[in-house]
Design brief:
This protein has helices at residues 2-20, 28-51, 56-82, 87-98, 106-144, 155-159, 162-173, 181-191, 194-204, 215-239, 246-255, 261-269, 274-301. With 302 residues, it is mainly α.
Length: 302
């Protein structure tokens, strides 16, 4: 497990080191992220959907992901009320406690612990049980955090997101199209660049502003997102007699991810609690190097 985790930590700290030493300009990661979204990620989607075995596991992944999102929203709403948070902080608290970094950190962890098979299921989870919920539900949560505002969902942004378009087309064409091996090989080579580039970008953008001032709220966010909800899911699945197969393990790993970078961007864009959002992302990334292997270790014992 430590050997598998090394590459995840290594790529991450290369990005952090590069920013600290000013090897690249501040906007360098923007280019990497665009390359991932428009080229690497779609290639990864096509390759993995092509090799994915269509079975009930797909429905389990999507349904479980959505149920966890809904549960997390209600749980964090209730806890925020108990802590008497302001509406801005409360909405930010819900966002960061609910949505996880299922691609930029989720994919590297999947590849490290479950290999390419786990990565295939993670791609499905990321698009249908992570990207889709945050795209649809975040508008309602963010609007709640503002004094007034209109709830609106940017459907155009959802349906024109390159990896999402690629996912839909890949599933539609999967039964009819035979992709030559040399194309698959090129897609695999391009797609696998998501792992180092994503981790490098996350490390490059890591900041620790205002962590000390918000340590209580950040700690509760991370406890809900990365410990309580994953452990509760493991307990429920174990009690129901589920076999901890690769799809189930992949789902649990995705749910164990730290708070989502995109969710923090939404919080900042809505002028809510920026410090809570940024601090949760930064500290969550570092905490994941401990919590995710521990969650994986527990799953392997079952």
């Amino acid at each position: 497990m430590l050997e598998n985790l090394f590459s995840v930590v290594f790529y991450f700290f290369l990005g952090y080191f590069s920013r600290k030493k000013k090897i690249f300009k501040e906007d360098a990661s923007d280019i990497l992220i665009k390359f991932i979204i428009y080229f690497s990620f779609p290639a990864l989607v096509v390759y993995n959907v092509y090799h994915l075995k269509m079975n009930s596991s797909i429905f389990f992944i999507v349904i479980t992901g959505w149920l966890v999102v809904i549960f997390s929203i209600f749980l964090s709403f209730f806890i925020g009320k108990l802590l008497k948070m302001s509406r801005k902080t409360h909405a930010s608290f819900i966002m960061m406690s609910t949505f996880g970094n299922t691609s930029f950190l989720g994919f590297p962890f999947q590849l490290a612990f479950l290999g390419e098979e786990g990565l295939r299921y993670a791609v499905i989870f990321d698009q249908l049980a992570s990207f889709l919920p945050v795209s649809i539900l975040s508008s309602f949560i963010l609007t709640y955090g503002q004094e007034k505002g209109n709830i609106s969902i940017d459907w155009k942004k959802i349906v024109t997101f390159p990896p999402f378009i690629t996912l839909v087309l890949s599933f539609l064409l999967k039964p009819f199209v035979k992709i030559p091996d040399f194309i698959l090989s090129s897609l695999h080579t391009l797609g696998i660049t998501v792992i180092p580039l994503a981790l490098f970008s996350v490390g490059f953008n890591l900041r620790f502003s205002a962590v000390k001032e918000r340590i209580r709220d950040v700690f509760i966010v991370l406890f809900i997102k990365m410990i309580f909800v994953p452990l509760l899911l493991i307990f429920i699945l174990y009690s129901l007699g589920f076999e901890f197969s690769i799809p189930v393990k992949a789902t649990i790993l995705e749910i164990s991810m730290p708070p989502m970078v995109l969710a923090s961007i939404f919080v900042i864009g809505a002028n809510l609690d920026k410090d809570l959002a940024v601090s949760s992302v930064g500290l969550g990334i570092l905490a994941s190097f401990i919590t995710v292997p521990l969650i994986m270790w527990m799953i392997q014992l079952l």
